[in-house]
Amino acid sequence: MADIIAETDRLVLRTIEEGDAALQYRLLNTPSVMARLGGVKELHEIEAKHARGMALYAREGFSFLFMIEKASGEMVGHCGIKRVDNPLAPNQGDHEIGWLVREDRWRRGYAEEAMRPVLDWAFTRVGAPHVVALTSEANVGSWKLMQKLGMVRRKDLDFEDPAFPPQDNPTIQYSLTKDQWESAQ
């Protein structure tokens, strides 16, 4: 049974369950949505990612969540917290936040609406001293949301990742400390 982590005016943020990979594969795994995230994934890759996320939630009390639209009951995206796990990143193990929204729900403010309670979750219940978010310069929508959330660009954390095409290198990071977040509330 999924845990509900937060609710907003339009969304329920719930943990991922067994069997959710097929739903994500069908609704989120499109060329447009995955364009800046390494491209479309195979179902077994999503299943493995979900298994890691469920294990992280069981072990540390945080993970990625599904964004469920209250009005329709449909999954419209995912968001949450994980550990920086890219072996090329200089800050492996930091709390990393992230999100994506399915294409037919773009430009409705769902990512920001979901990420505000995710930040609250990170800094209160999870106890993260700071969070980071990773993207590329080309992913303008992503880093603009990071700025809107109060995050600060951290050029000292940039790194090259040959798994991504040249237009998505380097990987750039933004950071937000608990103190910065609290002072903005």
Description:
This protein is α+β, with helices and mostly antiparallel strands and 185 residues long. It contains five helices and eight strands; from the N terminus they run ββααβββαβαββα. Strands 1-2-3-4-5-6-8-7 form an eight-stranded mixed sheet, with helices on both faces. A hairpin with a 3-residue loop joins strand 1 and strand 2 (11-15). It starts with a strand and ends with a helix.
Provide the descriptors you would attach to this structure in a database record:
8-stranded mixed β-sheet; 185 residues; Aminopeptidase; alpha+beta; 8 strands
Structural class: alpha+beta
The number of E-state strands comes to 8
Low-confidence stretches: none
Distance, first to last CA: 32 Å
Widest sheet: strand ordering? 1-2-3-4-5-6-8-7
Proportion of β residues? Answer: 25-35%
Region (Disordered): 160-185
Protein name: Putative acetyltransferase
Keywords: Transferase
GO molecular function, one term: acyltransferase activity, transferring groups other than amino-acyl groups
